[in-house]
Amino acid sequence: MLSFASNTMTALTPLDGSDDALLERMRQDDVDAYRTLVERHIDHAYAVAMRILKNPADAEDVTQDAFVKAWLNRHRWDAGRAKFSTWLYRVIVNRCIDKQRLLKTEWLDDVEEPAADITDAVTLIHRQRVYGRLEDALHRLPTQQRVALVLSYYEDMSNIEVADVMGTTVGAVESLLKRGRKRLRELLRRSEGDIRTGFAD
Protein backbone atom coordinates (compact mmCIF):
# COMPACT_ATOMS: atom_id res chain seq x y z
CA MET A 1 0.00 0.00 0.00
CA LEU A 2 1.24 3.49 -0.77
CA SER A 3 2.32 5.68 2.10
CA PHE A 4 -0.35 8.13 0.94
CA ALA A 5 -2.96 5.48 1.60
CA SER A 6 -1.59 4.36 4.94
CA ASN A 7 -1.30 7.93 6.20
CA THR A 8 -4.74 8.93 5.01
CA MET A 9 -6.78 5.82 5.68
CA THR A 10 -6.33 5.49 9.43
CA ALA A 11 -9.33 3.72 11.01
CA LEU A 12 -11.22 4.01 7.75
CA THR A 13 -14.40 2.01 7.30
CA PRO A 14 -15.15 2.14 3.56
CA LEU A 15 -18.55 3.51 2.61
CA ASP A 16 -20.92 1.70 0.31
CA GLY A 17 -22.14 3.20 -2.93
CA SER A 18 -21.13 3.82 -6.50
CA ASP A 19 -18.34 6.17 -7.47
CA ASP A 20 -20.91 8.72 -8.61
CA ALA A 21 -22.68 8.59 -5.24
CA LEU A 22 -19.39 9.04 -3.43
CA LEU A 23 -18.42 11.91 -5.73
CA GLU A 24 -21.70 13.64 -4.99
CA ARG A 25 -20.95 13.38 -1.27
CA MET A 26 -17.40 14.54 -1.91
CA ARG A 27 -18.74 17.65 -3.62
CA GLN A 28 -20.34 18.43 -0.26
CA ASP A 29 -16.91 18.17 1.41
CA ASP A 30 -17.48 14.66 2.76
CA VAL A 31 -13.95 13.51 3.62
CA ASP A 32 -15.06 9.93 4.31
CA ALA A 33 -16.45 9.65 0.78
CA TYR A 34 -13.15 10.92 -0.60
CA ARG A 35 -11.18 8.45 1.49
CA THR A 36 -13.37 5.61 0.26
CA LEU A 37 -12.72 6.60 -3.36
CA VAL A 38 -9.01 6.67 -2.67
CA GLU A 39 -9.14 3.28 -0.97
CA ARG A 40 -11.10 1.89 -3.90
CA HIS A 41 -8.84 3.13 -6.70
CA ILE A 42 -5.38 3.88 -5.34
CA ASP A 43 -3.77 0.48 -5.87
CA HIS A 44 -4.97 0.25 -9.46
CA ALA A 45 -3.93 3.82 -10.19
CA TYR A 46 -0.47 3.19 -8.77
CA ALA A 47 -0.13 0.02 -10.86
CA VAL A 48 -0.84 1.99 -14.05
CA ALA A 49 1.67 4.69 -13.11
CA MET A 50 4.25 2.06 -12.25
CA ARG A 51 3.80 0.29 -15.59
CA ILE A 52 4.42 3.54 -17.42
CA LEU A 53 7.20 5.03 -15.29
CA LYS A 54 8.85 1.90 -13.87
CA ASN A 55 9.97 3.89 -10.85
CA PRO A 56 8.20 3.39 -7.49
CA ALA A 57 8.90 6.88 -6.15
CA ASP A 58 7.77 8.62 -9.34
CA ALA A 59 4.70 6.38 -9.62
CA GLU A 60 3.75 7.19 -6.04
CA ASP A 61 4.20 10.92 -6.64
CA VAL A 62 2.00 10.80 -9.72
CA THR A 63 -0.69 8.80 -7.92
CA GLN A 64 -0.74 11.12 -4.93
CA ASP A 65 -0.91 14.17 -7.20
CA ALA A 66 -3.90 12.69 -9.02
CA PHE A 67 -5.88 12.10 -5.84
CA VAL A 68 -4.97 15.51 -4.43
CA LYS A 69 -6.24 17.02 -7.68
CA ALA A 70 -9.48 15.04 -7.30
CA TRP A 71 -10.06 16.59 -3.87
CA LEU A 72 -9.08 20.12 -4.87
CA ASN A 73 -11.43 19.97 -7.87
CA ARG A 74 -14.31 18.24 -6.07
CA HIS A 75 -16.73 21.15 -6.45
CA ARG A 76 -16.24 21.14 -10.23
CA TRP A 77 -17.07 17.47 -10.68
CA ASP A 78 -19.85 16.75 -13.17
CA ALA A 79 -21.10 13.16 -12.84
CA GLY A 80 -22.41 13.20 -16.40
CA ARG A 81 -19.06 14.19 -17.86
CA ALA A 82 -17.10 10.96 -17.39
CA LYS A 83 -16.63 8.04 -15.04
CA PHE A 84 -14.33 8.81 -12.14
CA SER A 85 -12.02 5.95 -13.13
CA THR A 86 -11.71 7.34 -16.66
CA TRP A 87 -10.92 10.81 -15.33
CA LEU A 88 -8.41 9.34 -12.88
CA TYR A 89 -6.60 7.35 -15.58
CA ARG A 90 -6.45 10.45 -17.75
CA VAL A 91 -4.80 12.45 -14.97
CA ILE A 92 -2.39 9.60 -14.20
CA VAL A 93 -1.41 9.23 -17.85
CA ASN A 94 -0.89 12.97 -18.35
CA ARG A 95 1.22 13.25 -15.21
CA CYS A 96 3.28 10.25 -16.28
CA ILE A 97 3.88 11.77 -19.70
CA ASP A 98 4.99 15.01 -18.03
CA LYS A 99 7.36 13.01 -15.83
CA GLN A 100 8.77 11.18 -18.85
CA ARG A 101 9.71 14.47 -20.46
CA LEU A 102 11.90 15.23 -17.46
CA LEU A 103 13.47 11.85 -16.92
CA LYS A 104 16.31 10.02 -18.61
CA THR A 105 15.87 6.28 -18.30
CA GLU A 106 18.74 3.83 -18.02
CA TRP A 107 17.96 0.45 -19.55
CA LEU A 108 18.94 -2.87 -18.06
CA ASP A 109 21.22 -5.08 -20.08
CA ASP A 110 19.61 -8.10 -21.74
CA VAL A 111 19.65 -11.18 -19.54
CA GLU A 112 21.20 -14.30 -21.01
CA GLU A 113 18.71 -17.13 -21.45
CA PRO A 114 19.52 -20.52 -19.90
CA ALA A 115 20.70 -23.17 -22.33
CA ALA A 116 18.02 -25.65 -21.28
CA ASP A 117 15.20 -26.10 -18.77
CA ILE A 118 16.79 -28.81 -16.66
CA THR A 119 14.69 -28.45 -13.52
CA ASP A 120 11.52 -26.73 -12.41
CA ALA A 121 13.67 -24.12 -10.67
CA VAL A 122 15.51 -23.32 -13.88
CA THR A 123 12.20 -23.13 -15.74
CA LEU A 124 10.87 -20.64 -13.21
CA ILE A 125 14.00 -18.51 -13.40
CA HIS A 126 13.81 -18.59 -17.19
CA ARG A 127 10.22 -17.40 -17.18
CA GLN A 128 11.02 -14.63 -14.73
CA ARG A 129 13.84 -13.45 -16.96
CA VAL A 130 11.64 -13.48 -20.04
CA TYR A 131 8.98 -11.52 -18.15
CA GLY A 132 11.64 -9.07 -17.04
CA ARG A 133 12.73 -8.66 -20.64
CA LEU A 134 9.14 -7.92 -21.61
CA GLU A 135 8.91 -5.23 -18.94
CA ASP A 136 12.18 -3.69 -20.12
CA ALA A 137 11.08 -3.81 -23.75
CA LEU A 138 7.77 -2.18 -22.89
CA HIS A 139 9.59 0.64 -21.15
CA ARG A 140 11.78 1.23 -24.21
CA LEU A 141 8.77 2.16 -26.31
CA PRO A 142 7.84 5.78 -26.99
CA THR A 143 5.65 7.04 -24.15
CA GLN A 144 2.42 7.23 -26.16
CA GLN A 145 2.81 3.67 -27.46
CA ARG A 146 3.62 2.40 -23.98
CA VAL A 147 0.60 4.14 -22.47
CA ALA A 148 -1.72 2.70 -25.11
CA LEU A 149 -0.40 -0.83 -24.57
CA VAL A 150 -0.59 -0.57 -20.78
CA LEU A 151 -4.20 0.60 -20.87
CA SER A 152 -5.22 -1.91 -23.53
CA TYR A 153 -3.47 -5.06 -22.31
CA TYR A 154 -2.87 -4.56 -18.60
CA GLU A 155 -6.05 -2.60 -17.83
CA ASP A 156 -8.15 -4.44 -20.44
CA MET A 157 -9.66 -1.23 -21.81
CA SER A 158 -11.39 -1.03 -25.16
CA ASN A 159 -9.89 1.20 -27.85
CA ILE A 160 -12.70 3.67 -27.22
CA GLU A 161 -11.85 3.81 -23.51
CA VAL A 162 -8.14 4.17 -24.24
CA ALA A 163 -8.87 7.03 -26.64
CA ASP A 164 -10.99 8.74 -23.99
CA VAL A 165 -8.26 8.45 -21.36
CA MET A 166 -5.52 9.60 -23.74
CA GLY A 167 -7.60 12.41 -25.21
CA THR A 168 -7.21 11.20 -28.78
CA THR A 169 -9.13 9.33 -31.48
CA VAL A 170 -9.80 5.62 -31.76
CA GLY A 171 -7.87 5.61 -35.03
CA ALA A 172 -4.85 7.13 -33.32
CA VAL A 173 -5.05 4.49 -30.57
CA GLU A 174 -5.21 1.70 -33.14
CA SER A 175 -2.13 3.14 -34.82
CA LEU A 176 -0.27 3.40 -31.51
CA LEU A 177 -1.14 -0.19 -30.62
CA LYS A 178 -0.09 -1.48 -34.02
CA ARG A 179 3.24 0.33 -33.96
CA GLY A 180 3.79 -0.56 -30.33
CA ARG A 181 3.17 -4.27 -30.92
CA LYS A 182 5.49 -4.23 -33.93
CA ARG A 183 8.26 -2.58 -31.95
CA LEU A 184 7.77 -4.97 -29.04
CA ARG A 185 8.08 -7.95 -31.36
CA GLU A 186 11.35 -6.51 -32.65
CA LEU A 187 12.66 -6.03 -29.12
CA LEU A 188 11.52 -9.49 -28.07
CA ARG A 189 12.60 -11.37 -31.19
CA ARG A 190 14.99 -13.49 -29.13
CA SER A 191 12.48 -14.19 -26.37
CA GLU A 192 10.06 -17.05 -25.99
CA GLY A 193 7.25 -17.31 -28.51
CA ASP A 194 4.48 -17.25 -25.93
CA ILE A 195 5.50 -13.75 -24.87
CA ARG A 196 5.32 -12.48 -28.44
CA THR A 197 1.99 -14.24 -29.02
CA GLY A 198 0.34 -12.16 -26.32
CA PHE A 199 0.93 -9.04 -28.41
CA ALA A 200 0.03 -10.53 -31.79
CA ASP A 201 -2.21 -8.58 -34.16
UniProtKB/TrEMBL annotation:
SUPFAM superfamilies per UniProt: Sigma2 domain of RNA polymerase sigma factors, Sigma3 and sigma4 domains of RNA polymerase sigma factors
Family annotation (Pfam families): Sigma70_r2 (PF04542), Sigma70_r4_2 (PF08281)
UniProt xrefs under PROSITE patterns: SIGMA70_ECF
Every RNA polymerase sigma-70 region domain range: 37-101
CDD domains: Sigma70_r4
Protein name from the UniProt record: RNA polymerase sigma factor
Single GO term (MF): sigma factor activity
NCBIfam families xref list: sigma70-ECF (TIGR02937)
Keyword set, alphabetical order: DNA-binding, Sigma factor, Transcription, Transcription regulation
Assigned protein family: Belongs to the sigma-70 factor family. ECF subfamily.
BP terms from Gene Ontology: DNA-templated transcription initiation
Ranges for domain RNA polymerase sigma factor 70 region 4 type: 133-184
